[in-house]
Amino acid sequence: MTPRGQRTRAKLLKAAESVFGEKGYERASIADITRKGGVALGTFYVYFPDKQSIFVEVVDDLGTRLRRLIADSTSKCDNRIDVEREGLRTFFQFVRQHPNLYRVVRQAEFVDADCYRRYYDRFAKGYVTGLSRAMEEGEVRRMDPEALAYCLMGIGDFLGMRWVLWEEDPGLDRVLDTAMGLIRHGLDTRPAPPPGRNTLKPSKAAVKAAPSRAAPSKTAKKNTLRPARRPGRSARS
To answer: φ, ψ for residue 124 (rounded to 5)?
Structure first.
């Protein structure tokens, strides 16, 4: 493809991202996309056969760009905790730059289920690789890396929706600190205690305050009331 063709294709993808996000897949038309991109209607079919094909390409392209951006931004991080924080920050920036990301990706579940799953599977695959490496190096406690990857992806997904998409929050560092506090605890290299086991020892004050179960003293025994004697039978007259 020529450089000019690449630019035209990129314009169509950018326009489609906007149109699908604003109108939804069902209401959007190819004419809407070409009009938004400033491209002739007939030119569209040089690059895409139909509306669904460009929709799938938009979702795949968004995922590819997001993964590449996160990989670049975290490439100089020294440890996994720093990778998680920088990855979250980069994701928030991407959501800010692509406000239609959530709407477009979620529509994919109904337009093309394979495309929808591929978006998350590709993201998780790279995540699993990084987490597995961190586990080998002792930076992360050994767990199921795929399950852990989806847990961490879920954190980013919902935080981005709440504090970037729904309501732009200038104090995102506070949100990042909260998320990282949770992630640090979950990625602690110390083994977790067995389920149901209480590892906390009672304090000395608690021991003193606890009621004594010692046997009663001799004095206490002496002071114990004895049962009264049964009265004798009354004399018959």
So the answer is: -65, -35
**194: pLDDT strictly greater than 50:** yes
Give, in degrees to the nearest 5, the angle at Cα 102 between 91 and 21. 125
CA 149 to chain CA mean position, Å: 8
The one-letter amino acid at 10: A
**Counting Cβ atoms within 10 Å, is residue 14 exposed (0-12), middle (13-18) or buried (19+)?**
middle
Q: What is the pLDDT of residues 139-192, one digit of tens each?
A: 998 999 999 999 999 999 999 999 999 987 777 899 999 999 999 875 556 655
Cα–Cα distance for residue pair 69/74, rounded to 1 Å: 9
Domains of the chain: 1-49 (1.10.10.60), 50-186 (1.10.357.10)
Q: Which long-range contacts (CB under 8 A, 24 or more apart) does 117-125 make?
A: 118/60, 118/63, 119/59, 119/60, 119/62, 119/63, 120/150, 120/153, 122/63, 122/67, 123/63, 123/66, 123/67, 123/153, 124/149, 124/150, 124/153
